[in-house]
Specification:
The structure holds two protein chains of two kinds. Chain A is mainly alpha-helical. Chain A has a single domain, classed as Cytochrome-c3 Hydrogenase, chain B (Orthogonal Bundle). Chain A has 15 helices and six strands. The longest helix of chain A has 30 residues. Chain A is globular, with a radius of gyration of 22 Å. Chain B is α/β, with parallel strands linked by helices. Chain B contains five helices and seven strands, in the order H-E-E-H-E-E-E-E-H-E-H-H. A five-stranded mixed beta sheet of chain B has the order 1-2-5-4-3, covered by helices on one side. In chain B, strands 6-7 form a two-stranded parallel ribbon. Classes of the chains: A mainly alpha, B alpha/beta.
Chain lengths: 373, 209
């Protein structure tokens, strides 16, 4: 059969590695792509490079010590992780949190949402080639880091909440600075929109890239802005209110087609809604204590619970099982939104170009610290 | 200045090394008698009452316990029944209770984006006992079940792609099991897994003696 005629143009699929050391994979994510020319036929997502065993470690630490470990998961929105964890333990113990603490927690969580979306927009746009936006976003995020530094002394891993309340009240004059930040951020949002929203290149690179329908997005487990981009109005803050969200007014933006551009628009609108929430929370900030009645030794009764909050990436859930005897959880489990959203990447990239893979990883908004834990 | 001997603290203040016996499982308390089960529980009971071995209610969460054999039937009912509509699989995880005969609890946290309610489904499985994959019902369970296999070694069967996900492919053992050491197996495991296993077994028998 050596002389059998070969087809003149035979094609073979080519397997290439993207990452784990690739500037646009946002950390140590490895994507094994199977290519037909420039088109992606299939891909395999390899994770685990940053696995630190936070769940196992937490099962050997006190309930109070775990707050610090949760910081290390989604490190661009550490306070949100603290919030989800503390609320889960409070639910398990039946603790009542003072209203003032709830309001401050809400403000911190929303500031984190803006910070996280700033990092997302900056890196996403830079991956696609718009470098200017990155500089703008990091400039605004710096202001949030300053606010957090003034509040709790740390700029990245805040350890800013405790079971039953907060360790610190807001410093004098801090609320004025937050208002000032909201004004600046609102103003600068117009700049981002002028740079991107009607930019021809941006539209070409994001429209109809990685389209996923609402039912498909639910089935694959997308949550947060990627799910809302597909037109499903699901937001844990609205559907299962926690902290002070049931007392505050905000809208849940949804997309129409479920492509990368819609996910961009949804997140951009979330900036505005977060600013709206922060302003209302500052206006209605009640007086009172910041810590509820918490026993000195945190030891929840035997039982299990699952509690979810809306992190900037999606549904952040904690499952904690207590055996009722120990001061550490018997089982500590995090439902990381980035992990579940990243699962959809394989479905999203099929049939697209290699350059679109970069756009799609950015549009899912993963933080590898949270994916691998 | 000579060092004065520090007074020894009274015995009560010293931390006492107390061996806490391993708990034999979560309590799974039944719902209080005056609490009517929600519509999705009654609907699931009506559709296949035999599959539900136990109902549990704790701090506002409902849990349905079932057996691995009936898990898929229950999963389909929960997804498709008009009163349930659990279309979103939030989380799949496990917990390890080595003192119990069927040591693993595999836990499925479900949510309905239409009805906006939550439920947990739980199955008990012994080490190596097959637990059917629910990734055919909820594709989102694919990676989550891979993690359950990776971390606990729960024998998830009929999974489309059962590989390790967080640990390296050639890793020995399942780190989230309670008998797995927190500080890890050390370097020896990667170099010579059999020697590691021999040493570890020798150590654990020495502890018993």
């Amino acid at each position: 059969m050596a002389n059998a005629p070969r087809p003149m143009f035979d094609t073979e699929t080519l397997v290439i590695n993207m990452g784990p050391q690739h500037p646009s994979t946002h950390g140590v994510l490895r994507v094994v792509l199977r290519l037909d020319g420039e088109r992606v036929v299939d891909c395999d997502v390899v994770i685990g490079y940053l696995h630190r065993g936070i769940e196992k470690l937490s099962e050997n630490r006190d309930y109070t010590q775990i707050v610090l470990l949760t910081d290390r998961m989604d490190y661009v929105a550490a306070a949100t992780n603290n919030l989800g964890y503390c609320e889960t333990v409070e639910k398990l113990m039946g603790l009542e949190v003072p209203r003032r603490a709830k309001y401050i927690r809400t403000i911190l969580a929303e500031l984190q949402r803006i910070a996280s979306h700033n990092v997302w927009l900056g890196t996403h746009a830079m991956d696609i080639g718009a470098v200017t936006v990155f500089l703008y976003n990091i400039r605004e995020r710096e202001l949030i880091l300053d606010l957090f530094e003034e509040y709790c002394g740390a700029r990245l891993t805040y350890n800013s909440m405790r079971v039953g309340g907060l360790p610190l009240d807001i410093p004098a004059g801090w609320d004025r600075k937050v208002r000032e930040f909201c004004r600046i951020q609102e103003e600068k949002l117009v700049d981002y929109e002028l740079l991107l929203t009607h930019n021809r290149i941006w539209l070409e690179r994001t429209r109809n890239v990685g389209v996923i329908s609402g039912p498909d997005a639910i089935a694959i487990g997308l949550s947060g802005p990627p799910l809302r981009g597909s037109g499903v109005a699901r937001d844990v803050r609205k559907d299962e209110p926690y902290a002070a969200y049931d007392e505050l007014e905000f809208d849940v933006p949804v997309g129409a087609t479920g492509d990368t551009y819609d996910r961009y628009l949804v997140r951009l609108e979330e900036f505005r809604q977060s600013i709206r929430i922060i302003r209302q929370a500052l206006d209605g900030l009640p007086e009172g204590p910041i810590v509820g009645k918490v026993p000195r030794l945190i030891k929840p009764p035997a039982g299990e619970t699952y509690h979810a909050i809306e992190s900037p990436k999606g549904e952040l859930g904690y499952f904690i099982a207590s055996d009722g005897k120990s001061t550490s959880p018997y089982r500590f489990r995090v439902r990381p939104p980035s992990f579940c959203n990243l699962q959809a990447l394989r479905q999203l990239v099929r049939g697209h170009l290699v350059a679109d893979v970069v756009a799609l990883i950015g549009s899912i908004d993963v933080v590898l610290g949270e994916v691998d834990r | 200045m000579p060092d004065e001997p520090r007074p020894t603290p009274p015995a009560a203040a010293r931390p006492v090394e107390k061996k806490i016996e391993a708990p034999s499982g979560p309590p799974d308390p039944p719902p209080p008698a005056d609490l009517a089960p929600p519509a999705f529980v009654t609907a699931a009971q009506a559709a296949l009452g035999g599959a539900i071995t136990q109902l549990s209610y704790w701090v506002g969460d409902w849990t349905i316990l079932t057996t691995p054999a009936r898990l898929l039937d229950l999963a389909r009912v929960l997804r498709d029944d008009p009163a349930c509509r659990f279309d979103f699989c939030s989380d799949v995880t496990a917990s390890d209770w080595p003192a119990r005969e069927s040591r693993f609890d595999v836990i499925y946290c479900l949510y309905s984006t239409r009805r906006r309610h939550r439920v947990r489904v739980k199955v008990r499985a012994a080490d190596g006992e097959p637990v059917p994959s629910v990734s055919g019902v909820w594709p989102a369970a694919n990676w989550l079940e891979r993690e359950v296999w990776d971390m606990f070694g729960v024998n998830v069967v009929n999974h489309p792609d059962r590989r390790r996900i967080l640990m390296p492919d050639d890793w020995q053992g399942h780190p989230q099991r309670k008998d797995y050491p927190l500080e890890g197996p050390g370097e020896l495991l990667l170099e010579d897994p059999l020697e590691w296993l021999r040493l570890r077994n020798a150590q654990s028998t020495a502890e018993i003696e």
